[in-house]
Request: fold
Amino acid sequence: MVRTGDAQLIRELNKSIILDIIRKQGPISRADISKKVAISPTTVASCVNVLMKDSLVMENGTGVSSGGRKPILVQLNPVERFIIGVAINASKITIAALNLYATVQRKESHSLTHKTYDDLSDFIIKLLRDFIEPYQQKEKCLGVSITFQGIVDADKGVIVYNPKLNMTNVSLKEKIEQALQITTYIDNDTNGSLLAEKGYGHYQQSKNLVYVTIGDGVGASILVNDAIYRGHHGGAGEFGHTTINFNGPVCKCGNIGCLENYVSWPAIQSRMESDIIKGKKVNDI
Ligand SMILES: [Zn+2]
Reply:
């Protein structure tokens, strides 16, 4: 016996597979979608209807006929719905509105110092509220996606540990959803970069990837069999706080001699500055 829950799950999965193929290969006919994803033409037609009703996809033009009528093509709807992306690092918050093709439509940046806010969660909510304010139909926003440095539990939407912003176990997703009534997704910034490469960049066909970032901090994101490997509390890629020198400096995380203190941009800059002060020539640094 098929349980209702299973049927609902299969409908959602089919919808998601069909939306993904439209995103990657649209404009595309319903018949071609059916062939490419091996889902029956009837199911494809009904899913496309639902996606059109939700203004996620639209009909646009006709394809080449294989004998009968020219097939009508469907593609993502670039105007009706939008997504808000927020990138937060130790010094800046960037907020952008994007259409379904991930084209940035509007963007603003705010510098971030400890003098800027008392509670970072409240500050983020205030900035988002101001950003959304000009939109007349806020329900057209599909969701807010926020990336953070540090350890993030993406499933629970919790900033587990971010020493630079002084955040520990902050339920940011819950706070934003309660305040703004918009579905919110939170993830580590390197995971966000990996997903962008996987979705829109050079590695769309790769099922296994390691993406390493070196900037304010050091981190990695690991894709295994098309899924991000997160590890305990989402800390799998946080190798920047691995001790590489037991006699090294005390890190902000409390550990000693972390890798981040040797290879991050601020670490390299301060080493260069102190070498210059000591009178070393540029070629010797
Ligand atoms: Zn550390």
Observations:
- The chain has eight helices and 14 strands.
- The mean pLDDT is 91.
